[in-house]
Amino acid sequence: MLAMVLRAARSPLELMERPNPPLRPGQVRVRVEACAVCRTDLHVQAGELPDVPHPIVPGHQAVGIVEEVSGGTRLKVGDRVGLPWLGSTCGVCPYCRGGRENLCDAPTFNGYTRDGGFAEYAVAEADFAIPLERTDDPIATAPLLCAGLIGWRSLLATGTAQTLSIFGFGAAAHLLAQICTSQGRTVYAFTRPGDTPAQGFARELGAAWAGSSNEAPPKPADAAIIFAPAGELVPRALATVRKGGVVVCGGIHMTDIPAFPYRLLWEERRLVSIANLTRDDATSFFPAARRAGVRARTHTYPLRAANEALNDLAAGRIHGTAVLVP
Ligand SMILES: [Zn+2]
Ligand SMILES: [Zn+2]
Prior knowledge:
9 helices, binds zinc ion, Quinone Oxidoreductase, Chain A, domain 1, 2 domains, six-stranded parallel sheet
């Protein structure tokens, strides 16, 4: 099979012919139909996440068809599944047993600590492959597997917030904005100063207001979600939320947060992060996304053009999500 392989940190991916690995019990082999590209793939490539094993096949938003199963699993050959960031958990640590498997002490992650979806085939633990419907379009669904799920988990962390400030209007935000507006919530979208295309994109998707991250929204928001990996947005986001509001950091990596006056946090504002996902998140998310009619804006690239897709993402040239198609 062909795969795009990262052989060392800070190097381009290489197109390689690799043998299909044998399956262990409980695993499935998935023929990848589409795999979306995420900012985290850039962090893996840049060595900004700890202990990336090289060589590694990145990609944690793959949609594909089960072609082979090993051992007892509810999945059948021919099922369409999604392979998200969470590749497996230990099932026995306090987090797994406490319903917080996203914080598992011994997890694996697709495209980070185990080979992911930038390939023609991927091997997954059957229990961690997300069942999809045969009618789900692979290219349109792939971005939901990380950008969509992380946005969903971030939204759950805001509780019943009716008005949301969203910082960084990229892949995750453009999906979440559609869900929020379909649920009758109000979205304020913050972009890099001067990024008028992204602001226009946000308004198209139903944002009530869109502007630069150094502007003030029309009214204080109930909550804010930060998707951009820029620590200086934390005090700015805190400044947009009302008393008792929450600021959720949705990214896996962020630059240092600068010092800020305590008054921004005071009055019971809360600052939290979210990490990874649980399978329960996926169970609640996909029906909600179908109900909201979420449409991912995608730009497709052939698998072998993965480096071009990563470069376009890094340069901010993509409004929506890049998707690799083998
Ligand atoms: Zn991701
Ligand atoms: Zn665990």
